[in-house]
Design goal:
The complex is a heterodimer of chains A (about 750) and B (about 475). Helix content of chain A is about 45%, strand content about 5%. With about 750 residues, chain A is mainly alpha-helical. In chain A, strand 5 and strand 6 form a beta hairpin. The termini of chain A are far apart. In chain B, the strands form six sheets. In chain B, strands 1, 5, 6, 7, 8, 9, 13, 14 and 17 form a nine-stranded mixed beta sheet that branches. A two-stranded antiparallel ribbon of chain B has the order 2-11. Chain B is globular, with a radius of gyration of 23 Å. Classes of the chains: A mainly alpha (about 750), B alpha/beta (about 475). The interface between A and B is large, with 104 and 101 residues.
Chain lengths: ~750, ~475
């Protein structure tokens, strides 16, 4: 420790002792602002006063102005001088330092300090700009708006949509045809196309609740959790290896993935889902399931023994990892970009650096632990059977060491100690994190945070969730930046609709399945996706929902649908990640935790893509190229890019060719060898409908041409090969890859 | 087929805007990228160069043995040096404070008189083209984080690499090839694997595409066995017919047209990319210029020659790794500095010299930036007698080509080659300079992610003005 820093710490100690003792003694401090004013006038106001310059947006000319703070946030904490930035900045040796040149005397510093300690917390002011932001406001279910076309309303949410449309002279689109509707519902809820039988049953069912029956069936299917679990895994950075140097395998990570899938299939309440993932270990009678859930905090990339040897490097790495956990937590659950405040007060939102470090204090007692599953034991601190373990993030110290603010996020620049607290932005309701109980095994801080996030009074959590679910049913959220509800994020295209949906979710216990049904039974959801030229000019981006959006399928849905249609899909659930074939020339890209060379795939590889081993150093190409997340940060909203390398893969990868062959074989097995029957079946299984006369004709011409060509090239099975060609084409069509 | 710019004009409602929206949900800025994420964009100001070739000497080449001679180190050979700090050591227990003089002799070359060690005799002939930066420093002395930093600015995973930033900022010039190409050493990829050329939080379109030096250069470039080109074309013809009739029924949805075009582009890439790596058209003289006639240098030589061919075809950013896997297969000379660097210099000397000659002769050096360097340097002190450890406090990189003042030395380390002390250059400074040469302001090239306008250079970076021509 250098001399300056030593002196500085000593001074801090002296000051805190002095101030604390005077306030503890209950001495009534005089309002000494006149003395304070003198100190400030002498040293500060030449740069910080409305009479002259206001550097950094900070005006120190009056008590109120001081309390308002500067452009980077509050400069003092009423009652707590040592935690106040203004005191920090004027201490000798502090960097950055105020005033830039010169040094206040100790007596002057003491004058300011005593004044701050005499202020009451009620004096604190949060800047109006932040507090007023829509997303931080209390959530009320807005009243149902009046609309003209009442007959269109199927669900209350439709009224909120329709009133906006009518205000702009837009008309909702007609209802989609039944085939489009059932296909949309299948892809949305389970990520697979409907079978011919399911389509036929739906077409034949003329009862008013025919579509509701389809939805119920899909929500009851275990495919549902595999589809929506994947959406959740996008947010939580799930992967099966650590990345970095050795891409260390995580033999137990899949248990978290399975936990997510099962939780959604079980329609666990969202509050419980939050509690388990953030603080499963702090839930009473926590079992394997709750501990597995804490894998939420373990999913990020890691490089445990390789981030440097000096204690400083190791601590920095630990804080970097916790930063990942904090970011993921707040982005995922609350749409808050808290990470910005690690180095400075948030530039857009009323989140101070102190808020960040108070949240860090909540997590600061956690450690990454590999715990035994029931029946397995720890021996010498290691798992007896490492494959039967739980990747957990748990408190290992109920009395964690104090957390300091780190100015500019720099370990070498520690500021005052902060206590664990939730961010003050939502401070209309006190939510003190309880003091750690004596003899407690765990600090209990994370469960308190989880309860605060899950509380129906938290205005962000359910708005964010409603928006995320809506996004997957419409291709985009009502708030387009679904992970950023702050002031730098997008504003909601229909705020009343969003609030209505969030309130609906809360009223219905945060159950996802009921919410899907509520959305899908609406007229808004069931609209056709065709465009209307005159409406395009009014609302080109369809922000007001005058039609349904067309959407490109996600990577997993493309692969899974190919497997499903070909009758290849292995419906086995859960367990360690699978490693389908990756072309040999791509394998050298990762030299660690190597992917095996697969000569040919079999049923063990043909499982749903959510089970494909997520190897950070070499993401599975078919998924990676179609915009699967890179697993390092929260992925809120997948892109739907269109690039030629995707086309190359679907044209040329053996996978597609193999499946086209299997599809052709299964068609022949089921439907015989009559060409037009085979074409019709191939077509309807992939695209959900029979080909038009034109299309059938074109397919016949194509088949005949291909049969002739295969004859010519000495094929022993020219008819079969031609059918394979047709199947291959169908897998590549836009109609297969886009949802109407 | 219509050009990307026209797609953009055609974009009305529908997918185009949906695709845009999905871009917008992470990215605040790329409004005219609605249909093609790789559409060519104008730089912020006129660019000096069009392409970058980054010769990445993976493992950490030793600056004091190649470009930064230290007579004082020789004087201290076998003794402790005063600037040493045990905390800087990576191989604790093996690396001690014992100076090790360079086993190589240095001489002055060219009119500039730049000193280069005897390991790089061919490259030395180009001394007057080089700007040697002797004052590099970085934030980690471990391969994984340091490679991440050299590629993406951050020692942590998850940031887009510089090649991704360039293709995001400028798009591609040649439509038939990817804009960002990575070529690996024959020993395999460096550690971190494909994360090294990751697009991070950007769309996958900006990801580096690994290019193989022989056979099929890009994965999935040719159909599987049993599918001829003719059969493939027949499939594509029916596909196009159906996709076009579907698109015609949905005229407002421009993504449908974009996907049709992507298949045609992919079909053409099969030919163009194969042609790009086909060296049969290169004369023996040219091949020998790159050292293809030599067993040791032909691997890297081939990649260097390919790099020139890709530059000619408009590829924006080409990264060539020398050294693969780990340890002695890379420049990671822990055990025996001389043995390691003898090999890796021999592998790269003639190819790099050939590349500079060839680019110059073809008039391409003016519009191409060539960068040489690793993720860090090596300790002036010895590891286990004759090796050197990782060293991040000071090391050397060089640049040559468009916009660069050749024949110059920028910055300096202390007399032991330990700390960068004069005109220090950080990795963000280097990145800012590369962007600058391409006409991009590193403070303006941003991508909105998690509520922040992210930059390659994060919150630092200064263009290294003195090295600019």
């Amino acid at each position: 420790m250098n001399l300056v820093r030593f002196c500085c710490k000593l001074l801090l100690l002296i000051i805190s002792v002095t101030f604390v003792s005077s306030s503890h003694a209950g001495v009534q401090l005089p309002d000494s602002f006149s003395n304070v004013s003198q100190v400030l006038s002498k040293n500060c106001v030449s740069c910080h006063s409305s009479a002259g310059k206001i550097r950094g947006g900070l005006d120190l000319s009056s008590k109120d102005k001081i309390l308002e703070g500067g452009s980077s946030g509050q400069v003092l904490v009423p009652g707590r001088s040592t935690e106040s930035l203004i005191i920090q900045m004027i201490m000798p040796g502090r960097s950055p330092h105020m005033p830039p040149k010169g040094q206040l005397s100790m007596i002057e510093i003491e004058t300011l300090g005593k004044w701050i300690d005499g202020l009451s917390p009620a004096d604190a002011k949060i800047k109006v700009s932040g507090k007023d932001h829509w997303a931080f406001k209390k959530l009320d279910n807005p009243s149902v708006p009046r609309v003209d076309k009442k007959g269109w309303i199927n669900q209350p949410l439709d009224a909120y949509v329709l009133s906006r449309l009518e205000a702009k002279n837009l008309k909702p689109s007609p209802m989609a045809d039944k085939i489009t509707l059932i296909r949309r519902a299948y892809f949305d809820l389970i990520g697979l196309p409907p079978t011919s039988l399911a389509i036929q049953n739906f077409l034949n069912d003329s009862s008013p609740n025919a579509f509701e029956k389809v939805i119920d069936e899909l929500l009851a299917s275990p495919f549902y959790g595999e589809r929506w679990g994947r959406h959740w895994l996008d947010l939580t950075r799930y992967a099966d290896s650590g990345g970095f140097h050795n891409d260390v395998p995580r033999p137990n990570s899949w248990r978290y993935r399975d936990y997510v899938i099962n939780s959604l299939n079980d329609d666990k309440s969202f509050a419980q889902f939050i509690r388990e993932q953030l603080a499963g270990d702090e839930i009473e009678n926590a079992g394997d399931e709750q501990l597995i859930a804490t894998g939420f905090g373990r999913n990020g990339p890691s490089n445990d023994d390789n981030m440097g040897k000096a204690p400083q490097d190791i601590e920095k790495y630990r804080l970097d990892e916790l930063d990942g956990v904090i970011n993921t937590t707040f982005t995922t659950f609350m749409g808050m970009t808290l990470g910005c405040a690690r180095c400075h007060d948030h530039k857009f939102d009323p989140i101070s650096q102190k808020d960040y470090y108070q949240v860090l204090a909540i997590f600061n007692g956690t450690s990454k632990k590999d715990l035994p599953l029931l029946g397995n034991t720890l021996e010498k601190g290691k798992l007896k059977d490492p494959e039967r373990g739980i990747m957990a993030l748990v408190d290992t110290n109920a009395q964690p060491k104090p957390t300091h603010i780190l100015w500019r996020g720099d370990l070498n620049n520690p500021g005052p100690v902060v206590r664990a607290a939730v961010p003050s932005v939502l401070s209309w309701k006190d939510w003190p994190i309880p003091e750690v109980a004596k003899n407690a095994k765990s600090s209990g801080r994370r469960i308190s945070l989880a309860d605060w996030i899950a509380s129906p009074e938290n205005p962000l959590t359910y708005r964010v969730l409603a928006n995320r679910i809506w996004q997957h049913h419409f291709g985009r959220g009502i708030v387009e930046t679904s992970g950023n509800f702050g002031r730098s994020g997008a504003i909601p295209s229909n705020p009343e609709l969003l609030d209505h949906l969030a309130a609906w979710l809360i009223k219905n216990g945060g159950q996802w399945k009921a919410f899907h049904k509520y959305i899908m039974l609406s007229s808004t959801y069931q609209q056709a996706s065709g465009s209307v030229a005159e409406f395009v000019s009014i609302d080109p981006d369809n922000r007001l929902h005058w039609r349904q959006n067309k959407r490109r399928l996600e990577a997993e849905a493309i692969r899974d649908s190919i497997l499903y249609v070909s009758d290849s899909l292995n419906q086995g659930m859960g367990g360690p990640g699978i490693k389908p074939r990756i072309r040999s020339e791509l394998l050298p890209a990762s030299q660690r935790n190597k992917w095996p060379l697969i000569a040919s795939e079999g049923p063990e590889h043909w499982r749903r893509s959510v089970y494909v081993y997520s190897k950070r150093q070499l993401l599975f190409p078919l998924l990676d190229l179609f915009d699967a997340p890179n697993t390092t940060d929260v992925c809120d909203c997948r892109l739907a890019s269109i690039v030629p390398t995707q086309a190359l893969l679907l044209m040329n990868d053996e996978f597609v060719d193999d499946q086209a062959r299997r599809f052709a074989q299964s068609l022949i097995n089921k439907h015989g060898i009559k060409q037009d029957v085979l074409i019709q079946q191939a077509y309807s299984k992939t695209l959900g409908r029979f080909p038009s006369g034109d299309r059938l004709h074109q397919a016949c011409v194509f088949m005949d041409k291909q049969i002739a060509a295969h004859h010519e090239s000495q094929s022993k099975t020219p008819d079969f090969d031609a059918l394979v060609d047709l199947c291959h084409v169908l897998f590549n069509t836009n109609e297969f890859v886009f949802i109407d | 087929m219509f050009k990307r710019r026209e797609w953009l004009r055609r974009t009305g409602a529908g997918f185009g805007s949906l695709a845009l929206a999905s871009l917008l949900c992470q990215d605040g800025g790329a409004a005219d990228r609605s249909s093609s994420p790789l559409a060519s964009l104008a730089p912020h100001y006129p660019a000096k160069i069009r392409s970058v070739i980054f010769l990445f000497m993976y493992g950490g080449p030793s600056h004091v043995d190649l470009f930064d001679p230290k007579p004082t180190l020789a004087k201290y050979d076998g003794q402790a040096i005063p600037v040493f700090n045990q905390d800087d050591v990576f191989m604790s227990g093996k690396t001690k404070n014992i100076a090790m003089k360079s086993p190589y002799k240095f001489a002055k070359y060219g009119q500039s008189g730049i000193e280069i060690s005897e390991t790089y005799p061919e490259l030395a002939k180009h001394a007057d083209k080089l700007c040697i930066i002797r004052s590099m420093h970085c934030e980690s002395n471990n391969h994984g984080p340091a490679i991440f930093q050299m590629n993406s600015g951050s020692i942590l995973a998850g940031r887009p690499s510089i090649g991704s930033w360039l293709t995001y900022g400028l798009g591609t010039e040649g439509e038939n090839l990817p804009g960002y190409v990575v070529m690996l050493d024959y020993q395999g990829a460096p550690i971190n694997g494909a994360m090294n050329w990751s697009n991070g939080f950007m769309p996958a379109a900006y990801q580096g595409v690994p290019f193989r030096s022989g056979g099929e250069p890009i994965a999935y470039l040719s159909p599987p066995i049993g599918v001829t080109r003719g059969r493939q074309r027949a499939r594509l013809d029916l596909l196009r017919q159906w996709n076009e009739s579907h698109a015609a029924a949905n005229p407002a949805d421009s993504a449908l047209a974009a996907r049709i075009a992507s298949y045609e582009l992919a079909f053409r890439m099969q030919t163009h990319a194969t042609e790009a790596v086909d060296l049969r058209g290169e004369s023996a003289a040219i091949q020998n210029l790159y050292g293809l006639d030599n067993k040791t240098s032909h691997h890297f030589g081939r990649n260097c020659l390919l790099a020139r061919r890709l530059v000619e075809r408009g590829v924006r950013f080409i990264q060539l790794y020398s050294g693969g896997n780990e340890g002695p297969k890379a420049w990671d000379a822990h055990d025996d500095l001389k043995k390691n660097h003898d090999l890796h210099c021999a592998e790269t000397d003639k190819p790099i010299a050939g590349l500079l000659t060839d680019l110059k002769n073809r008039g391409l050096l003016d519009t191409t930036l060539v960068i040489w360097g690793g993720e860090f340097g090596r300790t002036p002190t010895a590891e286990r007698g004759k090796g050197r450890d990782h060293h991040a406090r000071g090391f050397t990189m060089w640049m040559a080509g468009g916009g660069i003042r050749g024949g110059t030395i920028h910055g300096a380390t202390d007399e032991f080659g330990y700390h960068a002390v004069e005109n220090k250059v950080s990795v963000p400074d280097l990145h800012a300079t590369i962007l600058h040469l391409l006409g991009l302001d590193h403070k303006k090239l941003t991508f909105r992610f998690m509520g922040r306008d992210m930059r390659l250079t994060d919150v630092s970076g200064e263009v290294i003005k003195p090295i600019l021509a």
